Amino acid sequence: MKTVLSIILLFIISSLSAYSQEFDYSKYGEEMPVFKSLNIGPCMDAAIHKDRLFVIGHRTFYVFDIKDPRNPIVIDSISNLGNVRQLEIQEGYAYITSREDGMFVININDVHNMTIVAHYDSVELATGLHISGKIGAITNRIYGIELVNISNPKQPKYISSTLTDEAQSLFIHKNYVFVGDWVARKLIILDISQPGNPRKVSDVQLDGYGDGIFVQGDLCFVATGHHGAGLVEKVPADPAWGAGHGLEIIDVSNMKAPKRRSMVKFPQYYQRSPDWWDVQAVGNYAFAGDTKAGLFIVDIKNPDQPQFKGHVKLPRTVFRGEAMNDPVNGFAVGKQTLYIAGSTGLHLVDASYLPQTATVKVEASNVVPKKNNSNNKSRSAYHTGTQIYSVCLDSLMGTAYVAAGSGGVHQVKWSPTITGKQLIKTESVVYDVQLENDKLFVAEGKGGLSVWEIGKDEKPKFLSRYFGKEGGVYQVVIDKDSKRAALHVGINTLDIIDIANPLSIKRIFTDVNQGTMYRFPVSKQMDPSGTIGCLWLVDCYTYDIRAIPEKPNKQKVLLPLGASNPSLGPINGFTFLPDRLIATYGGELIIKNPGTDDLLHSRLVNSTVPLSGKVTQFNSTLYATDRREGKVSAVDISDLNKPKLLWENQLKGHPGYAVEYQDMVIIPAGYGGLQFFKKQNGTPAF
After folding, report:
1. Three-state SS across 358-392?
2. I need a surface site. Which of 20, 164, 401, 420 has the fewest CB within 10 A?
3. Do 601 and 498 have their domain in common?
4. Angle CA(491)–CA(180)–CA(343) in degrees, nearest 5?
5. Cα–Cα distance between 362 and 214 in angstroms, integer?
6. 543 - beta bridge partners?
7. CATH, residue 587
8. 244-298 pLDDT, tens per residue?
9. Residue 284 shares a structural domain with residue 385
10. Cα(585)–Cα(559) distance, rounded to whole angstroms?
11. Cβ distance 614 to 518 under 8 Å?
């Protein structure tokens, strides 16, 4: 927990505007010029299979004919894929991570008629990706790595999750997963011979933030960036500031004791975003992408003494207000041609003078996924086989409506025993549900916000659908008095909408602040006057939903802790008492009176365990559910100066906001199902 907070603080402190730099490339070998650019818009990654080039960018997947490697011809494309990040091709299928939208699987056997055959719901923000044999591996940043059974590409199945500090990219080699762990500056090696229970074997400290990974034989290549390991002060004057950019070569012949063989360094600089770095090895060469600095070709024939062979600078552009070379995102190594994904398009580089350049080949994993044991399910839980994200109650009917991820919306009852059924089958993943009188509001990710009328026969009737301009809808919080709702939209947008007429929903306010939004950034509860809270990775604010749009009364939450307005962090959250705000932060409770900058810091008086998680409050009990750690805490807050831990449970799943019903607390817990506990002591309710 302490490590995660340090990562967040480092992110906050170092989130400064990039300063313009011109680099000296004299020591990086021959410049390899771009001979052609395809202006197809922002590109994120590229991959080659036979005589086809596949590219992702700006919510779109492209396929090109490269029979003539120097003249790619567009064959087809598929759009509306969300915030795409990394791409893998295997046996007629393309796999694409799409951050808040999980992973898409596309059948590419007929490139003139490509189809999306699966939309996999990842645990968190799907970022890094590698596919090998029957196993897929996804990085979810601070939520670690996720293993997926892709034996049937049309029905990918969740296997397991393993926490690391902040997993960015990864690579599967034989029975192992190699993870580039970001701010922790580590290469982590996991044994996945038992994919349901991955085991950490070893790690290596890096001299930069760990990202791109590639394994060839007994060598692991790691692309790093940002700040070096010797950073003391997080300021540009520190010698290690921006000195983490480079390529490290690690000997992994002994997985339990990997050792660095050598490393080379790229230009020293710092830029907040884009900040991802990639590497591929082909024969005697390693190709490393370093965004703003370009792409570097390193001769690795002697891995103890790597030598720069050449470098690529993409065409000049203006990126987020700064004049610079187009940043290198992903890339593909083809036959005497490099295909580089940049923010302005796809760039082609002549690599004919490099011998042995060819399509990258890797050794497939032989790990065999095993079926999950479904015989150990509690009588006090409802399972759908999919992730359960959130729950809302119809207290009069004794009914719960459940956001069941790719399982749509389920209706659950618990008297005399827990029973349930799928109520609404959706094409998109369902992340949140909220009931307002007889209207059910459903956050369907890229499917937008749908509205359903629940009649006396409990059969849903579709009414309308709202789409956010900046992306999908992932959370909805309703103010019953003002008939307004707050939405988490896309990767970092807050929308306030008017739902007075469910048939004609209108956006009346929107806001974007620094940093990404993880799941459930909006407070589930609001104060009696209509104030809500919203978290970004770097920022944290409250808003008066009833005064919008005339006067949103946007207020910083933690200003007294530093002028940078630090966020609570992606795993924490806040709620509202009638006269104050209460939040989890730094392992304790933060209580703030509205209209003042006075903060009260309260630690649990009867426990040394740090308190963390998204919070809801019912009378004198506060529940904190930590999605990352799988921890649920019930706290007595009758005396805010001396909060007491009532009970704590460790769940097998990723718990969302807790709700109370009579003598029970009900918790949506991802693949752990919808779980029912006695609120008095946290034991199973049934």
Report:
1. CCCCCCCCCCCCCCCCCCCCCCCEECCCCCECEEE
2. 20
3. yes
4. 45
5. 9
6. 532
7. 2.130.10.10
8. 999 999 999 999 999 999 999 999 999 988 999 999 999 899 999 999 999 999 9
9. no
10. 13
11. no
